[in-house]
Amino acid sequence: MFLNRLLLFIMALCLGSLLVRIHLPIPFLLGGLLTALLCKTLTHRSDVSWPKQWREYALMVAGYGIGSTFTVDTWNNFLAELVGVAEATIVILAASIALAFITAKLARENLKSCIMGMLPGGMTLTMLLCEDDKEVNPNVVMVMQVLRLLGVVITVPFLVIWLLNAHVTGSSVALPNHGGVHWLVVVPLSILGSFIATKIHMPTPKLLGPILATAAFSVFDGGVQPVPFWLMAAAQASIGLFMGMQLDADRIVKTEKMVPYILIGTAILIVVSIGMANVLSARYGFSLVTAFLAMAPGGIAEMSLAGMSMGENVSIILTYQLVRVLVINIFIPPLLAWWFKAKQA
User: Fold this and answer.
1) 239 vs 58: CA distance, rounded Å
2) What is the rounded CA–CA span in Å between residue 138 and residue 120?
3) What is the mean pLDDT of residues 66-95?
4) Can you spell out the DSSP letters for 176-231?
5) What does the pLDDT look like over 54-63, one tens digit per residue?
6) Is-contact 267 59, C-beta < 8 A?
């Protein structure tokens, strides 16, 4: 088993290196994702997997890398653009919930399952909620969340290059070094952030904990150095491999009727994101690519890493994505519980 995983990892790094040469963003993450999909599609082996623990270690590395870009300007941007952040969050959530209602009606599927499956940025929490809610179909939620995330991660980087004329200025792996405390010194802080976030039940603690801890230290101390190229490449590959392994053929077969609606819904969410991105870009003056990555219904790590590779304003992307994830994970569960309880009364 270990040798199989080592081979997968080497293949992901090789494919990622190829994607670097053709100037694609988040190359090693895409390399890991495509390696996993090819492996599962071509070999049809059910014993091939990628440990969740390895993915979580990789998220801590990515969290440090993203948090290290956080500065005093990020906080000032948040305060100055509070209305825009709120509007962006409301728009993407409203669009997601509306699509969930339409999908549930057309596919004749459980409404609560469709809402949980369509929420952008709530994959970890929704899967945990499925375990405690017998009304929810976990197959529907898993397939909807995974297909949406994969669709966004694969299509958004290409859209911003070909549709918005963005240019890859780096690999999203070799992060800019602006000096500051050496990254090894801050590693314990990243681990501590992950530990505290887990203890207080923060959503996606292995990512958000290091992001917040490193960001706070960066703002307080004036900056930290990025992690080395090889470590960020390995982390991206591990995240991509885990994402690709989540797409299970058996789950898709069980929810086959849902797939077209999921793909169309994801495309609509991306179109809504582009529309709102134009509004934000015109209002606040940052680039359309930055605004689009901030709005895109993908993950914090994936969209922030894509922004790094294109030289975009990662602090803006991080701020919008982070607020949305926190809103989804803190406020949506009790609202859903209240709504469905009121309907049953």
Assistant:
1) 6
2) 16
3) 83
4) -----B-HHHHHHHHHHHHHHHHHTT-SSHHHHHHHHHHHHHHHHHT-BPPPPHHH
5) 888 888 888 8
6) no
